[in-house]
Amino acid sequence: MAPVFAPFTENSTVQHNLKLSQEASHQVNQLYTVVTFDLAVAKKAYALVWQNPDTFGNVIVRMGSFHLLCAYIAALGKVMKCSGFEEILVESGICASGSIAQVINGKHYNRALRVHKIVQEASERILLHLFEQQQDPLPHETTVLLSRVADDPSEKKMSSALTDNGCKELLQTIQNGSPRW
Question: Which of 52, 71, 169, 175 lies 20 to 30 A from 87 at CA?
Answer without folding.
Answer: 71
